[in-house]
Amino acid sequence: MSTGNCLIWWSLCGVHSEKFGQFQQDSATPHTSRVATKWLQEHSSDFRHFHCAPKSPDMNIIESIWVALQCAVQKKSLPSGTPIDLRTALRDSWCEKPPGYLQTLVDTMRRHVISLLCARVGPKRY
């Protein structure tokens, strides 16, 4: 999912700190683009920032969720490609996930952390 689409999605959700808690970011290229930087400056009061070390290994299960949603949305033919179509496709794709999907991701984290520590390298694709 492109940075622009993610920001559109985030804006459509109506960002409020009591709903979303913290915004986690490191210095990865998508987080430091002009579009992302401008958007973050405009919305900085809407959420708390949680900064990670620059380009730190990503051990957050949200990355697996984003990849799964991105793949599911790309398989759908969006009629006009509007932000509302994207929101609907993301919501529908999320609702199609099996009930144990999140628990499966949580259960695999131990294995991912161990393999990252053993490899002592950057992020690992799940």
Keywords:
126 residues; mainly alpha; two-stranded parallel ribbon; 6 helices; 2 strands; 56% helix; nucleic acid binding
Q: Which of globular, elongated, flat, extended, rod-shaped describes the shape?
A: flat
Strand arrangement, largest sheet? 1-2
Indicate the mean pLDDT: 72
The number of domains is 2
Number of helices: 6
Query: How many strand segments?
Result: 2
The parts where pLDDT drops under 50 for at least 5 residues are none
H/E order of the elements? HHEHEHHH
Computed Rg: 16 Å
Summarize the SSE layout with pairings:
Layout: H1 3-13, H2 17-20, E1 22-25, H3 34-42, E2 48-51, H4 62-75, H5 83-95, H6 101-119
Parallel strand pairs: 1-2
Detailed description of the structure:
By secondary structure, this protein is mainly α. The protein has 2 domains: 7-55, no CATH class; 57-125, no CATH class. 56% of the residues lie in helices and 6% in strands. The protein has 6 helices and 2 strands. The protein has helices at 3-13, 17-20, 34-42, 62-75, 83-95, 101-119, and strands at 22-25, 48-51. Strands 1-2 form a two-stranded parallel sheet. Strand 1, helix 3 and strand 2 form a beta-alpha-beta unit. Helix 1 (3-13) crosses helix 5 (83-95) and helix 4 (62-75) crosses helix 5. The longest helix is centred in the last third of the chain and has 19 residues, at 101-119. The protein is flat and about 45 Å long. The relative contact order is 0.13.
Describe, in short, the structure shown.
By secondary structure, this protein is mainly alpha-helical. It is 56% helix and 6% strand.
